[in-house]
Queue: 4 jobs
Job 1
Amino acid sequence: MKSKEKKQNRKAIKRLAELLVDVKDSFGWYGIGLSTDEAGEVEQPGAAQVEEDDNEEEEEDEEDDEEETPQYYFDPADVQVAVDEAISTLMKEGLLPEFSRAKNAPKLSDIFSVLFGDRSEINGEIRYFEKLIRGYRDEAHIDDLNEAYGTLQSIIEKISPKKAKA
Amino acid sequence: MLANMNRLVVNIIHESGCDRRAVNELIAEAVEVVVFGSRAVGAHGSSSDLDLLVITPYKRRVISHGLDCVLLNPEEAENAFWLGSELASHIAKYGLWVSGRDDWKSKVRISDRAIIRKQDRISSILRSAAQRWQRLHPLFQTKYRITLRRELQRLNLLVRGMPVPPTPILDAEWNTPVHSGQDLFALASDHYFLESRHAELAYALETVWPTSVDSQREAVTAGRSPHMGCS
């Protein structure tokens, strides 16, 4: 029984690694992880410019702030939905029987706890990733999204099956 | 540091299970600290984070388990961007002051920019969820319907100049006979922001929240669960 479970887990983990690559690709929406050419073509959605300057009277708000360096925050909805799509796929493919009777949508960290055990170090990394892409009040800073991308890359490398040496 | 505060606030911080050392460090440096969100009004679930507004000259990044921090420097707390935001109005009404003065509170007024941001948020959810809708498990479809319903409730309050309450209160209000899914759908689809932007957003709204399904209301009401509670 245990070996059957382990085999099932291995299959689920392998599939999870594949699906997380798709999640990683969704960062391209924010211009993250693209080649220089691709990044130039991306129109960044949901970017909110936050002025660093104080005392901003209405009149000063006119179009003369082109030379300021903008600080960009983004709505992280696209990455969040991509994560949920990955979990949905695992559930629909029957790879997460533990959640077949769940009443609420599971989080990625719930999935990791089941597949890797509650005490696995990787759980901390995935919770950190979740926190970064959650942002705060609908906004995530571009630096946090960049860090989330790097964290996800590292997680994928850790959970992907090792390729046999040629 | 925590020992010097009023008992209610100390209990809220202890019960939240967040990293107390991180909270102590923040409080020690801060000019003003406010607990807000569901824990400030006692409407939290067991997994709810502790939400803190920290006004401090030493702004730094805080990512700690169980703790959600908004850090502002004292100048930012006085600027129009902050004073017009959804969050400032929320904290001014529902916040529990841990330390410092609440001088900025009386200057808060919900700005047009806050309303536009909320419209942008709704557009983002609609666009992202609708693109992947058929591939989402029904549990996640329900999750996004709930998210959309809450955001529309928030928008509805903001356009009326009212502060948005913590999520569990929004959910409780939704369960009163005054509200209906049809009302919110009408708010979203009639609202100029859907018409004036992308035509496909109206289609996305119909995909995510079809008007024809009466049982939709039940699914959307499922947000009462503490697990779905706090954002």
Job 2
Amino acid sequence: MIRGRREGKNIVNWFPSLGVAVWAWRGAIALSRRPAIWLPLLGVTALQGALLLLLTSPHRGGLSVLALPLVRLLGGEAATHYPILYYALPTMFFRANLVLSALAGSIAGGAATLLFARAFGYDAGRSPYRRAWRSAPALIVTTALTLGLLLGLAALATLVPGEWTLRSGAVRWGVRGAMMVLLIVVQSLFVYATAWIVLKGHGIWPAVRDSVRVTARTLLPTLIAVGVSALLHFPFSFASGRVDLIAGKLKPEVIAGLLAVQIGVQLLVTFLLVGAATRLFLWRMEANR
Amino acid sequence: MRGVLLLVPLALLAASCGTDREAGRRHRAEREIWRADWEYQSLSLRPEAVSEERWTDLAGRYESIAERYAGTPDPGTPGTIRADVQTIAARALFAAARIHGALRDSNRVEILYEKMAGRFGHLPDVAAEVALVRGRIAEGRGDRLAAAELYESAADRVEPRAGVAGAAGVVLDLPLRAARMRAAEAGEGQREAAYRTARAYYRRHAAGPPGDAVQVDAQVRLAELAADLGEWDEATSALHRLEAQLRGLDEPPRHPCEARFAVYGVQNRAGLSLDLTRQTLIGLLEDYPDCPLAGQVLLALASNASRRGRVDEALQHLDRIAAEPRGDVEAGSQALLARARLLDRHGRWPEALESLRMLPIRFPLSTAALQAPLEIVLHHAREDDEEAARAALAQAERDYRDFLARYPPGPLALIAREHLAQTLALSGEHDEALDEMVRLGEELSGSSKGASLLLAAARMAYEDLADTARAAAILERVGDAYGQTSVGRWATGEATRMRGTMAP
């Protein structure tokens, strides 16, 4: 039984929707003192940290044996030079993180969803890790699909002539805003797929289809929950696009620091988003009964 | 068999580890020199506020980077990671030499360049840079034969490339420069021999891919070389051929009008009639109305008209330059100065004064604007108007001090300081003028300008202040700094003679 809001009407008004989103976040925040729920997400964070350390270690004796081939693979030969390594670091990290998110992040997200669901009173079975592992193929494919779609959408920005964005700040920010809205909408449509897979045992396509349905019925709270997460991320992605400026004004190593902070923020945001999405999902399921 | 198969990946892994160790070392070297460069840039923001000790520490840091990364038994062939690391080490030594140069420690600079030549002679780019810098030092000291040899050695090390930084970007000029130095030292009958190596060098590059910037510039140098040897027809026909070639190119690396302007230069040097050279310039402006050298062409036309006694025509040309709102600063400011001088020569002082007063307003950062206050002084001195000359001197001193207070150190500030010293000397403040000239001369130590400033200061001490000891001390400094040149040897001898004449 889910505690809290029991009315599951389609939410389309802003204030009630905001209330629902805040309610979902509060539920997630209330569970933030349970280390067990953090554990799968911390595992991904540890992997991201190790990846960042590896990418910034082509000069460190022991690590360079692994680091240099990885840097060459992700950033080309030029990235093995200092300070070009740091200019290329956000791109390299982004590329490697995509693979990490699809392979490890998806499974960790599944485990975290199960742990949240259990904490919210849902019978999620005894071993969430084993259950998430069993659903790994579906989780990986769904996450890869979402990431692929998001990347495809991001590529749309390149259709705007570079001259326009260079000349006009309004066009530049307009494009950024439009891309942000599109990304939030697409991510919102897929945000419940993991819950469908691990909690309801759906396959890939039913999970995607039903995620879109749940999003449609919980549109504004979902958009708010996903949108706020994306906005929390925005300063870092914005800064990552200005590495030349940061490295020029400060030291190149600051970029690695920025990415480290970004990893930390991502952990918090993912915790909140997974928790809120799970709560919203269970609330919607409860209402549908 | 299976054992052999196992050994293959192991050998590959071992080989890749070796390469990775080298790449890691290069990364460390790049990081260390980047951090040192960072500090250099930070200190260079306000160099006057940085202690000499701090600069010396930084130079030491660069030298230690060079020590750490230069010492490999196998230098590696160019293009390899090992060669990259050595290039970084060489760059560190360059930076250290630059700092010691700024600290006027010429002995240390010499030692560092010797070290670079010895350690990095196998890296063509580095060897060329070293030869180039040492050539400049030798040229600054007036040692022309040594400079010529070093310039030729730099040109032999790297192939010229257009629009790049470093030795490759400037090397094309060097053979002609070296030839001119050799010619200046050679007897009349040996001039052609002095240019032989340079001519072969430029012919080789002129035969390169047509339309390439280096191929075009090599043709210009060949024409200049022919003009140096008095082969006027050869020089002009080479330039006409080049102009035709440039006109036929879709994207010429130089504007065809530049070749035509060079024809004017050759005609001028050959002493052809003023009417003929005027026709060349008029034809240039008619054929190429968009010529980027229009300002210089108009200046040349003005000079031509002035030499023919056509003052109004000269003024018209000069006014056209000055009226161009987006014209280049150098041409615009020189036009205003030339206008003022022309008007002054023809007794139209009020108009000349107006042009001189306009100069610092329209072109505050130009050599002509810095010349303007002294021009006013010189006019009143010529007119024997003592009162006006005194007022102009006081104004000139204020103007130069204002300029130095307002603008940061740089080439224009050096000119302002030289003019200030001149102004002080003309005002009779010889002590202060002398101090400024000595300071400036020492800052420009190693260059011919530095030597001439110190010699002028010595003369002022001897003639205007009757201070023989001070004059001898300044000459001794010239002797120390320029000991390998005739000027340095003369200064040492003169200082000894002066000391000998002084009462015990």
Job 3
Amino acid sequence: MPDPAMRLRRDQPSDLEDRVEPSNAQHVAVDLAPHAPELTVIEPSSGWQLIDWRELWRYRDLFYFLVWRDVKVRYAQSVLGIGWAVVQPVFSMIVFTIVFGNLAKVASDGVPYAIFSYTGLVPWAYFSSALTGASSSLVSAAGMISKVYFPRLIIPLTAVLSNLVDFAIALLILFGLMVWFGTSPTIGALLLPLLVLLMMLTAAGLGMWLTALAIQYRDVKYGLSFAVQLLMYAAPVVYPASAIPHRYRLLYGLNPMAGVIEGFRSALLGSQPMPWDLLLMGTITAMIAFISGALYFRRMERIFADVE
Amino acid sequence: MSDIAIKVENLSKRYRIGLKEEMHDSLVAATIDFVKQPIVNLRRLRRLSHFEEDGHDAEDVIWALGGVSFEVKQGEVVGIIGRNGAGKTTLLKILSRITEPTSGRVEICGRVSSLLEVGTGFHPELTGRENIYLNGTILGMKKTEIDRKFDEIVDFSGVEKFIDTPVKRYSSGMRVRLAFSVAAHLEPEIMLVDEVLAVGDAVFQKKCLGKMGDVARGGRTVLFVSHNMMAIKSLCPTVIWLNNGKIQSIGEAEEIVQAYLRDSEAVCVTYYHPAQPIEGRDISLIEARLLFEGDVPDNGQELVFEVKIEVLKKMQFSAHMFVYREYGLVMVAADYHSPVAPEELAPGMFTLRFKIPPYLLNPGMYSLGLMLADYDGNNEQYLSAQDLIRFDLEDDGYRRGNRYHLGWGGAVSPILPVSITRDSR
């Protein structure tokens, strides 16, 4: 049935046309204003691409709501709710203190073992849950991926951000413990934001790698929870980095979490000087992991909807 | 740039289908297989995304689209029709940037919204209000935009009272209404719509069609994929007919739809057996057939629509079977829901049987299709296939035999008695 209203409208000069600028741009978006016309070119992409920050910024509202959904839904319909963010590291601390501190008599750089291990556990718990969350995120968002377009990177990065809430709560408990044990932070505490940033960078880098692998190979899901447990012993969580023989120290520092955890201890407990050597090595690996992770993710993302 | 909204040039898309399992027939073979499995799996999974570049691809490669070119002007409403697997959905997925083309090029001028399903990203634990924001941003709206339209969206959905209740407590109807309401308030310049109207009850379908009509009249560019020829004819002045990944013809709706239907009528299919199963999410369709007695189905006998499926995972699901009239109108629908008993949920091969009683359908052209979806009505589709079977239902002559020589009137034709009593003399 031909529609007169329809035809009428088409004869009117479209104000859209006037605003469209001839563009030779190879990729997306001309303007960020809500109603500006944009020219999108869809072509088979080739080669490697880095993160398109501008596009991520345009989707910031979606990013915000996904992070918020993650936080809100994580402990939904549980009795303890957000209390789980407290229970997990605290109980690990108690068990570690009994097993490693009291029975095995692991050294703790002269501070009480309980707070020593808890300071290590807080960043480690964040790291492991961000990683696990990121690697399963894309698989659980498969329905969304096959139905609508948005920058796929948002999905693993959501896990990296939403786990910060648990981290913040665990950190508050840590401050409580510091008062209880009477330890006072050092001037190094000013570095905490940078340490958190390094921790996030590491989680994001590995997270991107694992996410991109997980959508094609579900092995990642099964292997990761087990690997994270083992990896904990490759970071100074239950023992101090000072227990590592000096000639292996730089090699040990390749694990960015080694620098982060020892940095936390130095800043908050003052048990050791700031481990600059570990931090330097760790920053290098974290950067490499982040850049290569982003490259790999961007290369794989174009087939996500096809192999899901 | 001129007044072209969408320009598609020589677009192609290649898929690799089938992750076929090989069967082993002995314990030894099974053991060897078990050891070799990781290597086989790795190769199999890698092949999903890697293609040999020498052009000698194996037979499990299909071209969902092969060199499609067309243009859509600003404000034009274009329908896309074609049989299952003709490439309609693939085309929409490429245009909405969900998947990349293998070759070719598309230029789109304007803000695009794609509506391949309603309620994408809905989370049962979140309230209606929260889901409006989440779903809205997923569909590409800004937060401020949703703030502005929030009351309107809630009004349209008719769930005001429950807006702060978690969506898991909603009925499936409420959920769909809310989801559609969000989608209906998108204001893109270009809208890509897949068969979202295939779900929901008649009232909902009508509301969707009405809203689609508003959108079309609003001067927006719309690409609309559907099997519903009536909807296509009433909404789209221009129609593209896709066949086997290529454009069969483009033109004025009436003409193309007629040609399509004529072409379809020429082939009655009562046994549909694709070379590769149609794959859905954790479920695939092996074959479909229509069982009847004699050479042609007639309205005096019971017809059985039989579909073989393979369920790949232990799960609950629902099956919805449809009888369509020639224009894609649903005449009759029936459904099945998995039992709650877990032992009956084991994966394997199943046969669904939908018995269509005699004298329900009036003689004419019909097609059969089905949709497999989640169990609890979240409107999540696992597999959807229309037009699997097509048949011309003959008149058995029972009614006509003695007195009538023309067709029997009515959309359906159950045998209903008419009585007469004498009231006065």
Job 4
Amino acid sequence: MEKQLLRFNVNDQEYELFINPKTLLVEALRDHLGFAGTKRGCDTASCGVCTVMVNGMAVKGCSVLAVQVNGMNITTVEGLEKDGKLDPVQAAFLDEGAYQCGFCTSGMIMSARAFLNETPAPKDAMEIRRGIEGNLCRCTGYNSIVRAIDAVAKGKYREGA
Amino acid sequence: MIHDFTYLRPGNVKEALAMLAQHRDGAKIICGGQSLLIIMRQGLVVTEYLIDIKGLDELNTLTYEPRAGLKIGATTTHRTIEKSLLIKEKYPVLAAMEEKLASIQVRNWGTIGGNLAHADAAGDPAPVLIALNAAVTIASSAGVRSVPLEEFYPGLFETVLSPDELVTEVLVPPPPAHTATVYQKFNLLESDQGIVAVAVSLSVGDKGVCRDARVVLGNAAPIPMRVKNTERLLIGSKLNEEIFAKAGDTAAEEADPVADIHASEDYRRHLIAALTKRMTKEAWEQACQA
Amino acid sequence: MTANKYSVLNTRVHNVDGYAKVTGRATYTFDVKLPGMLYGKILRSPHPHARIISIDPTEALKLPGVKAVVTGKDTLGVKQGIWRRYPELCDEQILTIEKVRYIGEPVAAVAAITEEIAEQALDLIDVLYEVLPFVDDPMEAIKKEAPMIHEGVERNVNVTRHIEWGDVEEAFEEAEYVREDWFKLGGQAHMCMETRATVASYTSDKKLTVYTSTQSPYYHQALLAGVLGLRESDIRVIAHYVGGGFGGKFELDASQFCASVLSMKLSKPVKIVFTREEDFIATKRRTPMFYYVRTGVKKDGTFCAREARVFTNGGAYTGMGATALYLTGFFHSFPYKWKAYRYDGYRVYTNSLPSSSMRGFGAPQAMFCSEQQIDWIAADLGLDMIEIRRKNAHTTGYEVPGQATIGSCGLGQCLDRIEEWIKARGTLPKNRAIGISAAGFMTGGIFNWFDSPYSFSSAVVTINYDGVVELHVGAQDIGQGSNTTLAMICAEALGVKLENIKVHSGDTDHCPADLGAWGSRQTLMAGNAVKMAAEDAKKQLLEFASAKFGYNIIYDLDIKDNWVHNVARPERGMHYADLVKEALRGKDGQRIIGRGHYTPHRKGMISPAYSYMVQAVEAEIDAETGKLSIIHCTTAHDCGQPINTLGLIGQLEGAASMAVGYGCLENMPVEDGKVMNPNLVDYKIIRAPNMPECEIIEIDTFEPEGPYGAKEAGEGLTNPTAAALGNAIFHATGLRMKQAPIMPEMIVNAFKEKKKEGGTP
């Protein structure tokens, strides 16, 4: 087995790793770079707690080989806060209590952020629900999360709002 | 745990095919890996070489020509297909199917080529594409061949691919006139794989008679299954409620479903009957308006 | 809704740990990394019942990177259990020595330098089993000829429970209509987002630090002491953030035990994290049950007699199963006044994964049977489904004979509000109907079968020079928001703003003992302790204020919104933080410390208070395929005084999602002792698009036992949903569904049966 060189950008910072090519993206992020916000919760790529953004797309970190994101931009939950200011999705989650145990929250926020980036004006609640369909939550029943995303979509967290 | 492998990243299709020709059974292709990585993590797939074609932009294409029809490169993601305005216009059933496939995360990274090559009889794309009379282009360093998708699966989780071959694109003929294709899967949760699934394509001919029918079942047999008796029942008639119901019963009879924890064989047949009845009706109503 | 008279209570606030959670900074056991840490993996039995002849770790130990292999023989072999008062129910060795009793039971554990090597090592441990006949059906296990699973336990019945009042036979004679039904209730997996996880670090000064995903750091400290032969106080349990519990994480599990044993052997930290599959097959589940119910009523709907006989599938070990056995029988009488009632429960060992406690604790199963049967009786007699409940409903002060005294009870109001809501819904489309279920639940179990010598809950309030309050509690936040709820109670009681409160929990070295987050106890019990501590601190502060202000002695002083003032003339006063500074100087630099505790005394055997609710579920049934769509879920809810507003909504919606799962999604078939769907593809957890909109109608009551009148919210709310769903199906289709979860195939088969019997489908 030959290790592979991986050069990628994580949360606006360039990194270089020399890794076993079977390393999953979530392992590169958590174990090699220390970004522990992204979690793992299942063996079948079903739960979504490992969701991160690759070039702005929500993907499951447990189902992507790290070497495949060579040269790409990764965003984890740690990368959402900018200059000490929470991302609107994070602020909305706080306001709506859209988390309980918090273990799914990192992945959920990343899915929500990616969804809103693509669909800033969802036409109804069901579209939002479908936007987070890939993320399981055992605590909240999802409705508070939908309310949080809806609040962002409705402009509650716009600058000067 | 994933077993160690030697990682190969070809720069283009030619290189990929050369690698396949060299390593044959010793190599596996990974593209999006949304199916492959799960079974590799379970230790069910062990390979000496892993050839990564995810980066092959050559195959990341989606084009349409009025004569040739639709061409989708194998490394095109599900999400690209789902969001394509072209697809929504010309083959709305494909967009609708992709919308309910797995999850957004899977669709963002997983590819149509990888999905078809994985050969899961419960997969969504194959029944729909077979209903659309699709074919796959298969390449090797020796040349290129085309195989109708309905002939691509000889058995459960099997394809006709030789160890040195690669699916490079999916071809879908231009939509015939007065034709509608619909798809529905039965599940408890929206984007789960279907306990069973049915794709129906119907064409209306002269005098409002059914000119052509393709009915394909998903997760009702070891492979995506065209139910030819059901199709014969439909062709040549003006379709009505009675025929829709009969089509359902016939499809249920033709199917070869398994029993598992999600459904007994009987219940699967029951669902196939219900779904086929509903989907033939829906396809017919749409086709009559097309 | 009455206007909020409180400054902090029942307001929308950010959870005190919200910032950490939304920024990914919250550190769970899953994230803990210590220097030199090793990774542990557990070898599990492939057989449901077998004798262990020998375990040979030689080959595994040869694998480079493997540091140790332990088996039960390397431990004290203590048979432990959570019912410490009753040694006969402490039946589980965790690393079992003589026999395995379920597929997945731990037989050995490995520590290695990487997780991968530890996993490879498992395949190299050679275990010789003598396979024994097994039995995984309780109705088979109870037969004379069934294999004996635990020595000396005849017929595999390890616990029986009996509840009775009134003269049941006489009451049945008086009844004018009698109905009997049999039900089958499935198990359920907790499916916490964070699987079982532990990092144990033993150091050669004989101290053990255990990071673990737990609902009760104190219980785990005490349980580990018992099985490891260590002094309780030499064990530190840390659980800063826990990824869900739901009743599955307050008993000792293999991650804690094996990691600790390995760490003690190596004096190195060892981390064990269950895979999702391990979490499904080898942790304790909701108790599956067989229920027989016979109910006698008058023609006008007055309840006369009920008799229930229940056999529970206990699985291989007891765990909390004895409590579930009792509570299901107790809550099966809820929330109604029965002239006579008799319950006989039998807990049966089987060779399958142990059954224990899961949110609802036997009550969801009980309500599925009781609330459906009541609707069927009402339908048989042509009675209104609300009226029949109203007629027999619990009221404030009611004595459940020999069992409990009901404190505050808003059930009547709940029924009224749901009745209004249903009327307002109007006529529904075909194949859609509303089903209701009433329920009542305990607010804190009074049981101390754990035999703890400590107060059930304790709290310490320490006020710093800058006015910030360090609140130390043993109550554990597992996502239900107890840190925030308790901070709110502290702030309200002390009279300060919420941002002044810093909560410390989840560390036995720094926090007082508390029984933990189970049995819906923390809001009431820890809340009372916190209120007492805060009021103690406030009293001390006001002594200073009183001396400082020098008012006429008739005047009262108080603190509200950080303002210390004369109650009669509130504009006269001083800022709380300024008072604190003076008080500290006055006490020779000592901070103000308030102490509080709570243990229920003379509150009966079950609970000091009961929450009540009536839930209406609107569902649509596709009669042809049997598919259910849950459209809406409305709950009229009496939890006394709401404390954490957002927390309450979250509990309602979260409980509904879990209970909907129990009602129609989370099928968990176990065949030949094997869990057939130990993964998230085949085990169906509800996802966002399928989750119904939920509505909460708060009922105003005041519970004298609870802090500020508060009662529980969150566990009781899992009770009614499966029953309400069953009733919706009944009203839409006439089908009586006697098995939970209700799967579409069952509905289709029920329609077929009905057609055969000649009924209209």
